[in-house]
Every structure is written in structure tokens, then in C-alpha cells.
Amino acid sequence: xxxxxxxxxxxxxxxxxxxxxxxxxxxxxxxxxxxxxxxxxxxxxxxxxxxxxxxxxxxxxxxxxxxxxxxxxxxxxxxxxxxxxxxxxxxxxxxxxxxxxxxxxxxxxxxxxxxxxxxxxxxxxxxxxxxxxxxxxxxxxxxxxxxxxxxxxxxxxxxxxxxxxxxxxxxxxxxxxxxxxxxxxxxxxxxxxxxxxxxxxxxxxxxxxxxxxxxxxxxxxxxxxxxxxxxxxxxxxxxxxxxxxxxxxxxxxxxxxxxxxxxxxxxxxxxxxxxxxxxxxxxxxxxxxxxxxxxxxxxxxxxxxxxxxxxxxxxxxxxxxxxxxxxxxxxxxxxxxxxxxxxxxxxxxxxxxxxxxxxxxxxxxxxxxxxxxxxxxxxxxxxxxxxxxxxxxxxxxxxxxxxxxxxxxxxxxxxxxxxxxxxxxxxxxxxxxxxxxxxxxxxxxxxxxxxxxxxxxxxxxxxxxxxxxxxxxxxxxxxxxxxxxxxxxxxxxxxxxxxxxxxxxxxxxxxxxxxxxxxxxxxxx
Amino acid sequence: xxxxxxxxxxxxxxxxxxxxxxxxxxxxxxxxxxxxxxxxxxxxxxxxxxxxxxxxxxxxxxxxxxxxxxxxxxxxxxxxxxxxxxxxxxxxxxxxxxxxxxxxxxxxxxxxxxxxxxxxxxxxxxxxxxxxxxxxxxxxxxxxxxxxxxxxxxxxxxxxxxxxxxxxxxxxxxxxxxxxxxxxxxxxxxxxxxxxxxxxxxxxxxxxxxxxxxxxxxxxxxxxxxxxxxxxxxxxxxxxxxxxxxxxxxxxxxxxxxxxxxxxxxxxxxxxxxxxxxxxxxxxxxxxxxxxxxxxxxxxxxxxxxxxxxxxxxxxxxxxxxxxxxxxxxxxxxxxxxxxxxxxxxxxxxxxxxxxxxxxxx
Lengths: 525, 362
Description:
The complex is a heterodimer. Chain A is α/β, with parallel strands linked by helices. Chain A has three domains: 155 residues, Rossmann fold, CATH 3.40.50; 68 residues, no CATH class; 255 residues, 3-Layer(aba) Sandwich (Rossmann fold), CATH 3.40.50. A six-stranded mixed sheet of chain A has the order 6-9-10-3-11-12, sandwiched between helices. Chain A has a six-stranded mixed sheet with strand order 18-21-22-15-23-24, with helices on both faces. In chain A, strands 2-1-4-5 form a four-stranded antiparallel sheet, with helices on one face. In chain A, a hairpin with a 2-residue loop joins strand 4 and strand 5. In chain B, a hairpin with a 2-residue loop joins strand 2 and strand 3. Chain B has one domain: ABC transporter involved in vitamin B12 uptake, BtuC (Orthogonal Bundle), CATH 1.10.3470. The longest helix of chain B has 27 residues. The N terminus and C terminus of chain B are likely disordered. The chains are: A alpha/beta, B mainly alpha. Chains A and B meet through helix 12, helix 13, helix 14, strand 20 and helix 15 of A and helix 8, helix 9 and helix 10 of B.
């Protein structure tokens, strides 16, 4: 692949990436979330999302010839096999049927002679034989190919996906998109061994991951992506875990920070103590987290996507089923109760601005005030029944619009028509209206432009300095956390991996995010 | 505040503003309004009596209004237009037959029917609301069929109910109630004739309109109350409501209860003005006309106000009233009913094809 560039809606996500995969070699691509790894693979596999958003520039060469890949079918015909991050298997079908899906071996019968080959019978024994062979190649000789996929352990599902790809006779390149993310450590080792064996058989493998030790263990060449840029391409011999971590994280943004930058009114008093929190949020599970939030601080929560950092705030604020113990200011709080959480002085700015954070077709003033109205009885007039106090709502909305500098035509404008940054300000205004002591802010800068990012971050700092609100900010952008936080907690695999000061080195952050600490701890014990 | 008006936004040009107004008012409403004006012109040309038409419009507006208001709690609580309206309507009819059986007359019969009907409908609405929470996302389809089923089930009820009043049973005896029961000696016209007066040949059913206005005000007040706003939050975005600590399911049940109660009161008012009680298949399609009315008034599947109900009822009923004599003179007898079905189904179809955002995607 040579000089690949890709824009999504004017946002350049790949800025000239070139990679060379040699036959029978394992090539790794590492990078943080959003670095462009998946986009690159989608281009290689001709996924429709690429072509629906204006295609890409650059060229793809195979065996020295330029090729055009405009659909996944083209990619398959060229011998590119892809194992997706999410499993693409039919749960009700057997392993053999899944492996042979859409490439079934058939023989003609009476009906098909009349109505064409689409109605031919399946040659089950032949399909079983082929599947068996593919599974054996992967070292899974004990797995019965006729079992249904539903109910298999996730690790086996991963192998079934790989078996499907290597069963295709033409497969020359196998793309594995974070295959070890869902595997246990022993399963991951088996997978790595299998990858080496497949490479030995002459299949090239493109391995995408952010587990750095795995990269060093199996691959010959490594490319590091950061913000769509190819920051380095190394031979395994030249690389080490800490060097990769440093390249991967980098410094992306100069400090945003507040202008005055007085130290936050930080005390040593624990405001919120989280013990053994488990949150069942799909894709962001929290698996037994212990974390203390000190009064008056800005605490950052970072980590890679899917490791549960987003789940924390959602669990504490009762948005997803949670277990564990919360102690706010010495008092234990019930979990799974949004109302109690809000009444106890916490507020939440959701990462899902449009899905959870706003009533898109209601006015700015309605959005700001209804939550406080429902759980704190504000903005109401009692006249037998409690009626909304239009005057108070309007006064409050105007004040907020002025204080937060929300660009709008007035408090009656519906929020759907606002820009992302202004919508985010409305969300924050909604939280401030609750007059919280502790505010959880998830991904406050996701999907808003650079200028608005700084304003939103400044706003959070102001909230902390001027109103003494304790802020817990969750973000995928480490640079952003480092610019405003007092401490940064890194979450790995649903647990706290470590807490660092914002000026800790890139290497330390990279190592924590890749879970190297818990890996080495495990090895030591 | 003045500098806020156009903060950062370019001033809109005149053309854009007109386009904006048209967009807000809605193309379907323009077409309907245009059609209505056309009909009125035709009626004038054909020499129909304008005062008479206007009087009918006022009466039909008042008698259908509360049935349309019943849509508001359902839509606002996020269950979409209430296609299961026949449930509450049936409760109202049961209460009315009971009032006849108990030999009640006049205003007290009317108030008893409305009150007892609302009570029954509230109970039915509660159970339907609980059921509805198990079919989230399918409320409209399920509601339509539940509505049909209720009507059919009640057909059995009407044939078996052991009421003895000679006004209701078949003239030749036997068991079961008649298809149409006259309310002439009961409470027909108690509202219509209350404070009623004539202006330039137009008979104004003052009591009826006042009663409708009362319910409009009550509904409007409720929608501005804490509970009404909570209901709006649930309907507008259930995840937002959850994050504000609201019990989404309970508010959806409340929406169903209120909607069915209004439906029961609505049918009592309807029967009072119409003068007859229609049993058996009578309520079968009433939901569709009420749904169509509020949608014509500008409501969407997720948002409805009292204004939408009032405007919609007025437009829909006006077209029916005016098109009937015009069609009879110009084309054929039955055209008015055809027009009614085309308009009501057409507007429902239009509303269903519009994209609705904010669905609970979990």
C-alpha cells in the first residue's frame, strides 16, 4: 500500500501511509484508538464505508501490480482475508456451516436441474472435511466442527473466523484486527503460535493491535500510526516496548490549560470512594475498579477504548447496571439509582451527547432546566399542582447562555440546530444547573472542532477553580487530560492500572495504557 | 438580550424567512387548507347555506375535540399516536349504557357517564400501559390490533349483557343490545343546547365548545406541570429521562391512563352531541380519525400540543362537513366518506414515513 490518504468529511484521518507486506511475514500496525488503523484496513478490504464517504487516494499494489478494491468481494478474490474485531458469525449455524458460509460445497439435485444452481443440495460431508482440515491447521483438532457457534467460548469463535479465512484457497494475506482483545492470555499465546505457523506456510499476516509485547513476539516489521500519520516503521530488532509506547502516545496538543492557571483547590479529603465497581455496559465493561476522588481536584480517566473508562461514570450515575460500593462524603450511595445519585450532588455529562445528553427537538432552555426541575423541584410554581415557572426558566437560560457563551438565536432555539460545541455547552449547563459538588464529564470534546475543544476544557477548569466543583473527566485524548488534570487514572481491562501525574513521561502513559504493568506483575508472581 | 438575537448568525433574507414559515407550518397543512378553501368556494358557488355549514363545523369541532386531545398524553409519553383509542371509547360506551339502564337523565346522566367511563378507562389504560411496556417500539402496530380486538370482543359483550332497559334491547325482545341507541330522552344535547345562541343564522353550541375549552385548558396545564414535563422527557428521549432519574415505564403507563380517560370522556361528549350511541363496530375506526386530526394539526409521532389538536380537529372536521354536501351535489352520494378515509389514511401514512429521531436503541 503506497501513500494512502483518507478524509472523512474534511477531517484527514490518514495522512500518507505506506506499508510493504512481504510473503510469509507478519507485519504489525500499532497505534492508539483513532490513529487510523481500522480505516487503513477498511480501505484494504474495500469496505463500503470508505466509498460512501468519497473514497481514498493512493494506490494498492499486489505482487507489483496496482489493483482496485472497490468491494469486500474484490478483496476476497484477490486473496485478502479479514478477521474482524467484532465477530461476523451466525450463532445458530454450526462451525462447518460458518466456515463455508456463501462458499458452500454443493451437488446438483432434481430441483436445481430445473431451477438453477442456487437450489443445489449442500454436500455436508465435504464441507465437514474441509472445515476439519482448516481447524486442524490451527491446532484445534479437538473441536467438533458440527457444534453450533452460539455457546462457544469467545476464543474459539476467533479461531473459527480465522479458519474461515484460511479455508479460502486463495488467501494470501490475512488481516487480524485486534484479535487478542477478547482472548485470555493463554488463548492469545495459542493464537500467536498459530500466526507463526501460518506465516511459515507462506501466508502474510497483517496484525493490528495495541498489545505491544505481542507485536514484539511475533512480527518482523512494525509500523506505528498516530493521528493518521506514519510516525515510524521499524524492524523488530530496533524496537522495544517502551520505545513503541512513546511513539504511540506522543505529544499531540500543546497544553490547553486555563489562562490564569492557579492550582486547583485540591485537598486531601476523599470526596467519592469507589470500591470494587462492576458495570455491565456493553463494550465498556468495568470489572472491579477501586478509585478515590479527592475533593476539589480534576481527575482524568484515560485508557484505550473498550477497557471500561466510559463505564465508570455511567455506572456511578445509574445509567447501566452496576455492582460495588460507592461512598460519597462518608455516606454510602445506592447504585442503579439515577435519582439518588443526582440528589446527592453529582451530575453527569454523557459521552453520548445526542443519544442521552439532550432532548434534540426541545429548546435550549428546556434542555437546561428539566433535569433540575424533576429531581430538585427547581423552576416550579405551586398552584395546587406544580407548574413550570416560565420566567425563572428564561432568566436562568439567558444567564447560562451569557456565562457559557453559547452561540444561538435565543433560548427558544431547538438544540438539534446547534453546532456540536454549543450542544456540549448546553449539556454542561444542564449539569451546572444541578449545582453539583462532583461532576462527571465523559468525552467532552468528542466530535467537536478544535476551537470549541479549548473552550469546553477551559469551561471545566473554570468550574473547578471558581465554583469549587470536583471534576472527573473521561477522555480518549490523553493530551487533553494532561493539559487540565491534577491526576490521571489509566483504566485497563476494566480495572485501575495506575494513577499518574499529568507531567509523567509518554513512556509511562503508553505502558499503562497497554496494560504492561499488570502483565509484568503477573509474570513476577 | 438584544445582542443575543442574532449572535453569530447572518440575518435571514425575506425569501428564506417565508420558506421557513412554510416549513414550520408544513406542506400537508397547506394542501389541506387549500383544499378546504376550494371546497368552501365550491359550496358558495353551489348556493349552499353558509350559516348552516358553519354551525355544523362548530358542532363537529366540539364533539370530536376531546377524542383528539386524548392523543396528546400518548404521543408525549413516547408511545406514538394512540391507536388503541377504542379501548377507552368502549369504556365510555359501557358507562353510558349503564346510565341508561339506571334510568338516569339530563346533565347528571352525562356527568355520570363521563366520570364512570373515565374511571373504567383509567383502569383499562393502566393494564394496557403495563402491557405496552413489553412491546416497546411496536406500540402503534400492536395498538391498532388491540383496538380492533377490543371492539370485536365487546361485540360479544353487547349481545350477552343482561341490561333490561327497553330503549336499548331489540324491539322484539331477546338478549343483547341494539346497534344504535338513541339518547334523545337521556342526555342528547345537554351541552350543545346549554347557553346556545344564534348569530346571523349560525347556531353556536356554547356549552359544547366551553366543555371542550375546559379540557383544552386542563390538558395544557397538565403538560406544563412537573409530571407533564417528565412525560415529555420520556417521550422525547427515554435515555435522557433515565439520566434525569425518571421512571420511564411508570410515566408511559401514566400516559396510557390519561389518554384512555380522555377517550372515554371524548366519546360521551361525542354521543351527547350526535344524539346516538353506536355499539358493536361503531368505535372500530374512531382512532384513525383522531390520529389523522392531530397529525394534520402539526403534531409528529413524538410531539403533540393542545394547539395541534385544536387546529387539526378544526381542519379535519371542516373538510368533512363541507365536502359532504358539495360532493353530493357534484359527484355521487358516498364521496364524503371516501374523502374522509383518503384524508385520514393519507395523513397517517405521511406521518409514518417521516424520519423520527431519538429512538431507544439499546
